[in-house]
Amino acid sequence: MTRLVVVSNRVSDPGPKGSAAGGLAVCLLDAMRDRGGLWFGWNGDLVAEESEIAISCTKHGRCTLMTAPLTERDYREFYLGFSNEVLWPIHHYRLDLARFTLEAGEGYRRVNARFADLLTPHLRRSDLIWVHDYHLIPLGADLRARGVGNQIGFFLHIPFPPPDILTAAPEYERLALTLLDYDLVGFQTASDQANFSRFVSEVLGGEIVAPDSVRLEGKFLKTGVFPAGIDVDSFVAMAEDPEGANKIRQYERHGATRLYAIGVDRLDYSKGLPEKFLAFRRLLDSYPENDKPMTLIQVASPTRDDLQAYVDIRHELEALSGKVNGKFGDFDWTPLRYIHRSVPRETIAVHYRASRIGLVTPLRDGMNLVAKEYVAAQDEADPGVLILSRFAGAAEDLQEALIVNPYDIDEVAHAMRRAIEMRKEERIERHRMLMKRIRQHDACNWMVSFLRALRSCRGMEDRPDQEKQLREI
Ligand code: ADQ
Question: Is 265 a catalytic residue?
Answer without folding.
Answer: no
